[in-house]
Amino acid sequence: MSERSELRSELRSELGVRAAELDASDELAKLRAQFVLDDVVYLDGNSLGALPASVPGRVDDVVRRQWGEMRIRSWEESGWWTAPERIGDRIAPLVGAAPGQIVVGDSTSVNVFKALVGAVRLAALTSDGRDEIIVDATTFPTDGYIAASAARLTGCELRPLDPAEVPSALGPRTAAVLLNHVDYRTGRLHDLPALTSAIHDAGALAVWDLCHSAGALPVDLDAHGVDLAVGCTYKYLNGGPGSPAYLYVRADLQPRFDSPLPGWNSHADPFGMSPAYEPAPGALRGRVGTPDILSMLALEAALEVWEGVSIDSVRTKSLALTDFFLECVEAYVPRGRVVSLTPSHHAERGSQVALRCADAGEVMKRLIERGVVGDFRHPDVLRFGFTPLYVGFGDAERAARVLGETVT
Amino acid sequence: MSERSELRSELRSELGVRAAELDASDELAKLRAQFVLDDVVYLDGNSLGALPASVPGRVDDVVRRQWGEMRIRSWEESGWWTAPERIGDRIAPLVGAAPGQIVVGDSTSVNVFKALVGAVRLAALTSDGRDEIIVDATTFPTDGYIAASAARLTGCELRPLDPAEVPSALGPRTAAVLLNHVDYRTGRLHDLPALTSAIHDAGALAVWDLCHSAGALPVDLDAHGVDLAVGCTYKYLNGGPGSPAYLYVRADLQPRFDSPLPGWNSHADPFGMSPAYEPAPGALRGRVGTPDILSMLALEAALEVWEGVSIDSVRTKSLALTDFFLECVEAYVPRGRVVSLTPSHHAERGSQVALRCADAGEVMKRLIERGVVGDFRHPDVLRFGFTPLYVGFGDAERAARVLGETVT
Predict the structure, then answer these.
(1) I need a labelling partner for A180 at 20 to 30 A (CA). Which of A226, A292, B89, B383 fits?
(2) B160 and B79, same structural domain?
(3) Of the residues B306, B336, B364, which one is the last residue of a structural domain?
(4) Do B386 and B32 touch, CB atoms closer than 8 A?
(5) Scanning every residue of chain B, which has its alpha carbon at the shortest distance from the alpha carbon of A108?
(6) For position B1, what pLDDT does the model report?
(7) Is A290 in contact with B154 (Cβ distance < 8 A)?
(8) Which residues of chain A have pLDDT under 70?
(9) Residue B176 phi/psi, 5° resolution?
């Protein structure tokens, strides 16, 4: 055995032992049993969360009994009608929101539209001449596309900026700022408290997209006075493919929240069938049309996993996992072969690691063939999401080891 | 036995025999076996269609295998990504549309918004000064609320009118007209070909809401040159509670269709993740965000029922059913106790019967207790929907008979 391969073998054994120790002392490790997982290392929960074991039975009951047997009665008797606000309240503690401020329904894109147009209208109520929407230029593209549409329809100008430039760009023309809490590509966590505070100091409204943070780290919407927020539920919340997104409108803003999509579900008396629109009080004002019950109730079952789980402990494990993964990558992958795009400072890191790699597309294919599932983001990024509820330290070590073998 | 009750008994026996004969010669009767139904007479399929027997197994497979085992791979390998347009093409023949013009996704309300804003923008491309949206004043309220929002955001004026007044109200200011094909309350079928033609003669665009017609009668969108249309899938298409709605944009309008909700799913290259928006060609341009896969694939399974079923035969049975029900109501219900709001002319009738009844709320409760499920619409309407795929003539006779016993 050459000195090099001997060293590597020692390292491997050492990191393997460390992983086992970390897993043994992980208080969240037991949650893995609540998910349907096989031998694959699943690091794509930041794209589609794994299936919680409670979901199939629940969905089957919704289909066969609630729909098949009770039919129309289920809108009332099975709680279908109130699901959007009930499930919103289940998400609320995960993002630091008191009850009554979140409704579930529609896609993230549709909720970004409601939130941004709503924010511009709220801004117009308090001061004139606010005709500018600032959007995170590095954002997940849909936010930028929808922000452009919201700007066009409200007569605003859209300014795409790097989040770091936002504080100095804010001014008397700024109506609203749409930011991603965690960058979908690099995994960078933005400073929500400081940015929200700067936005408020300029008299504008802060709209946060929580797709890549909710369920992975504390958000504390209420504590930081966030105005409006949206997020999807199929990533760290494990709601299933295309499960409905949610909208948060801070309680004190709700009476003035003026939705651009005032569907009948947001009416104060939806079954009054009045031709005159009168918005419901509270979070319900963010509803639009008939909610997609199958997807919504699958999400409700998925959220049961969170019973008794603190988001702080999830955050602690998430950082330990990404730290350990980065350490293993450094040990196993030849220097320079990949470059981490993910900030090393904890305060700037979400729950994913993004590695730049020239042949990332090809490398990810080979990783998947070998049972390590992350994803590829054009043109050269390997993305590995760490869902603390079901990913362990052994998974992190194995993923890095297979990556090292794949790129060597 | 009094003469009166003897007469009633004879009548009952005669109508019962007629019902049995009609059921025996009904070529669609065999389809009932493809639905999960019990002894209840279910006349609320115009609110929530019954469960097709193929759905529970399919949904279970989507949840356990496609999500649970294949996870992220299913977006490609299980055809999740292309579901909105694939299922749109499955709905297309039911509404007389060639393939490539319908996408499934979002709620009806959201699709009304896309269609109306899109229509106003299309109108502006061909002539100036079109700043008026006409909407069916008797419409299902959400269409009116959303139309008001579309008008406000596009700088248009909204004119709610009775559909009969529309032709004379059309003018050089009319940009778009939103009409319901069948009135949700009375069951009145509006003259789609004539109204569309009048709207076109005025240089405006016709947007039709097919919620209460698709799956119950021929719509022939292409043949009549309809510009845009929307519809839900949980009524006569039996897609399940809150199953996604659809948007039709006529093929020749697609290159100029300019959606107010340009989410990343409508991008020409969605995974290119470009900050610049470039709309996809064709019907895909009507997509927005990530589609709700569970609800969407339940709908796909539900649509299999239509294999080999012609919408003309469905219409023939629908009219025969509502005729027979009205005949039975006349025979069984004391004169004047209920008044039909549903047009007697076939050309003006959808697939439901609406009866005005002073104590409709109370009467419907008692009907439901006795196994006849229709619904109540404020303030005084009993609504009975006839889904030809699973409602028979015996059901119609029984429903009228129980109604007669209930109100006497």
Answers:
(1) A292
(2) yes
(3) B306
(4) no
(5) B289
(6) 52
(7) no
(8) 1-2
(9) -150, 155
